[in-house]
Structure formats: structure tokens, C-alpha cells
Amino acid sequence: MNGVAAFAVFAAVLAITPGLDTMLVLRTTAVSGRAAGLAAVTGVALGCLVWAVASAAGVTAVLAASRLAFDILRWAGVAYLLYLGIRTLWTAKPSTVDEPPPVTGWAKALRTGFTTNLLNPKVGVFYLSVMPQFLPSGLNPLAGSLALGAIHIGEGFVWLTLVVLAVNLARGWLTRPTVKRRLEQLTGLVFIGFGVKLALSRAPVN
Question: Could you tell me which residues come within 8 angstroms of residue 122 by beta carbon, excluding any fewer than 6 positions away?
């Protein structure tokens, strides 16, 4: 149980650390409202769930062992993040910022959150390389991995839901033209920055 408690603390710190998921949820909520924000949170959680199950089943071992498999998924993720970043920066143009905010439906928000996580091989490698270090001795690896994955996903879901609720309260201010433009610019740069970071990453193999 000490390993589970330690992982819960580690996962909580990881969840509240600002990153791509936080920025995606923040922007989605500010532009399209609480329902779309919660859909994005659900998509993020589902993406993590897929990686957790794949890790527990040993599928992500392929990513850690094969540079080609890792690179294929990595470049797909890079392309997707750059697409999101460029599209977001495009909406921040002065000619469009005064227009009504483009509303993202819950289905698209869910799909974006899910795809963003699914195309990031480093999430899978995290589940494969970090979680085993916290597995209690004597516990079935499959059951233990799924349990730790559930803790990570649950804590992330709770935190991002709080982000949605907080941003929704400030949505009136966040959708002002000047604030909206700055938020779109920041979000676009964050997406591009994460895309570049992912492009420069290497498979954890020799």
C-alpha cells in the first residue's frame, strides 16, 4: 500500500502541473463553454485509459522496444499538435477575433482530447516505465497496473473538472476580444511548443 500511496501523491502532482491537457481544457471551456470543456476532460481521460490498458497488457512495450513504432506515432502526434496550434493562431487574427467565438460541440471536444493523448507516445512510455516502479510486491502486475492507471486517470479527471468549473465562471471575461486574442495566441504557441518538444524527443531505446 505504500507504493500505491506514493504513486497517488506523484500522480496528483503530475495532474496539477500545467501542461498540454490543462491548456486544451482551458481553451475549450473558455471558447465553447462548460459542456465542451467537460467533454474534452472526458476525451483526455479516455486517451489515458487506452494507454493504461495497453501498458497493462504489454502493448506499449513495443513502443519502448521499437524506435520505428515510437517514431511513427510520435510524428503523427507532432503533425496533430502543429495543426491545432496553427489553427488556433489563425483564429487569433485581428480580423477574426471580434467575431463570435467558434463554438466547439461536445463530440469534437471529446475527440480532440482523446486524439491529443492517444497520439502522444510519451504518455504510453510513462505508463510503462513509471508505474511499475510503484507496483506493490506480490500484487498481480495486470491488476496493479490497472489500479495505478485508475488512480492517475481519476485524479486527472477531478483536477481538469475543477479547471473547467473555474474557467466557466470567468468565461465572460475570457471571451472579451483582447483577452480572447491573447488566450488564442498563447494556446496556439503552447500547442506548437509541445509539438516541437515531441518532435525533438527520442524513443527510449538504444
Answer: 198, 201
